[in-house]
Amino acid sequence: MTEVAPARFGAVEAGGTKFVCLLGSSPDDIVARTRIPTGADPEATLAEVVAFFAAAEAPAAVGIASFGPVELRRGHAHYGHITSTPKPGWRDADLVGPIRRAFGVPIGFDTDVAGAALGEGRWGAARGLSTFVYMTVGTGIGAAAVVGGRPASGLGHTEMGHISVPRQDGDTYPGRCPYHGDCLEGMAAGGAIAERFGRPGEQLDGDDLRQATLWEAGYLAAGLRTIVYTIAPERIVIGGSVAELPGLFPLVRATLIETLAGYGVLPEHAADDFVVPAGLGGLAGPAGALVLAENALLAENAQDTAQDTAQTTVPG
Amino acid sequence: MTEVAPARFGAVEAGGTKFVCLLGSSPDDIVARTRIPTGADPEATLAEVVAFFAAAEAPAAVGIASFGPVELRRGHAHYGHITSTPKPGWRDADLVGPIRRAFGVPIGFDTDVAGAALGEGRWGAARGLSTFVYMTVGTGIGAAAVVGGRPASGLGHTEMGHISVPRQDGDTYPGRCPYHGDCLEGMAAGGAIAERFGRPGEQLDGDDLRQATLWEAGYLAAGLRTIVYTIAPERIVIGGSVAELPGLFPLVRATLIETLAGYGVLPEHAADDFVVPAGLGGLAGPAGALVLAENALLAENAQDTAQDTAQTTVPG
């Protein structure tokens, strides 16, 4: 009896500074991996990605989890492109096209944060759940909602870092979002902490650390309240460097329950496993790109089956 | 040749004051309808619902769109129940059980606002879209997100009226939400307008009408910004009595674009068909209950097919 090897997928986490690529079937079965600096020329960078996979093994499908904004609407002429990024050279860059042309296999495509959400849902802190939110709090704040197993997107994609949050008592910091000033990202991303206290969060101690953690928990809880009321997730997973502030999670959980104020609250909202740290760290994005690849392959197979069935049942 | 009649479904919009029931296949094919006052005893009210359908025609499936909060998790012991309502007699009332027992057909179940969203998606202002939000602004504010064709819910259900919104310039009204004070519902539902101006929105004129419409547009736009950033809907449909304030929609559209401040904005967000009035009025809920019924029937048929296939392919 021959053992059937699992399908190997290509995964690309396309970031503003580097492309993380891996070939495998899961985080436990990574047969090749590399990092490619994000150059000024998208075509050259993507040629390196293609060369990496070509040198390893032709993937059964490829998933791309990309920095944005990106075009996710399948029918759109720019589907699979980065759109209006300020990053030199990358405006309107086609990510999906070159990789599809190189390998002729199904390509999955979504935002980097949607990819990380799928990774956490398959192998990380949201395993087994179908409706949950993954949020990353670092240089910026991004979040993706997975609803019924798929990242939600309709017109554009979610930008949950930019929801409005009420100002915390005693905080006079104006906020650093160039668009909205004091939105969640403007008040609670890493740079806001550093600007308020004159040094980054991971260097704070004493009263500064206590105050920073209190405000951070307040802003995140305010954001999570909005997420609970707009998406009703089964769990919220938080990753990113700011999530490592000591004592942050218990404070976020307690403050969230306080700000929900008894409305629409279930016992599960107060449990320790409702707001949890991410499980995969930096691997979430590439792992999620594997899920995007698999989903693309499954979708194509389902379509083929439907066409075969139609051909069988329609008399010739 | 005999013509096959479309399947007739039972639809129940379960409200705090009345149950609206209809039997049909679409808003254009309603063969029987009635209104049953919501009594103090759920069993008696549901017996009247059952008697109405029994007297008309046995439905192929029944959809129930209910006031809440309700339990939507299929595996939960209280699935299909109203849960913690303050309405006397209705706490923990089982809506699905009695109707399923009476007819032995598939039962669809969701919130009243999710039902209305499905109705607008099938026959109203969101026709043909798969990811959109329906919001009703009246005595309260409720909204449901349909994502990939299904109302989103995970733990509990959405309560979008209770997201936080920044205070509008010059508005000193404290807000009337008993839980959160100045959340969206607290500032922008019908009662907030009436309390600010000493008379209901539909009686305002002159400067009061102008000011009320300006603030209302500001609060709704702030809420919609959060919805755009958390769900990325293709369209937002707004119904309810407050949506009838003269001149409200153009102002909401313009204010939304202003508050998005150029971030994550596509040309489609600025189009007149992004934020639109509801198309079905009071029929949205019962029409959506028809969709819930149909979805329940389709789900059961799909399950049967899967079981048949499994029985065929597994050797006996």
From TrEMBL, chains A, B:
Its EC number is 2.7.1.4. It catalyses: D-fructose + ATP = D-fructose 6-phosphate + ADP + H(+). Its cofactor is Mg(2+). Keywords: Magnesium, Metal-binding, Zinc. CDD domains: ASKHA_NBD_ROK_BsFRK-like (cd24067). It is an enzyme of class 2 (transferase). PROSITE patterns: ROK (PS01125). Pfam families: ROK (PF00480). The keyword Transmembrane helix does not apply. InterPro entries: ATPase_NBD (IPR043129), Carb_Metab_Reg_Kinase/Isom (IPR051804), ROK (IPR000600), ROK_cs (IPR049874). Belongs to the ROK (NagC/XylR) family. This is fructokinase.
